[in-house]
Amino acid sequence: MSGLLAGHLAVVTGGASGIGRAIAKGYAEQGAHVVILDMNLEGAGDVGKEILDAGGEAWSFKLDVTDRQQCRDLANQIEEKIGNTSILVNNAGINRRNAFTANADDVIQDWEDIIGINLSGVFNVTHAFVDQLRSTKGRIVNIGSIQSFLHVRTPNSPAYTTSKHGVLGFTKALAAELGKDGVRVNAIGPGLIETPLNENARSNNQELIQTFMDHTLLARTGKPEDVVGPAVFLASDLAAYVTGGIVMADGGYRAI
Ligand code: NAP
Question: Which of 84, 33, 78 lies closest to 54, judged by CA?
Answer without folding.
Answer: 33
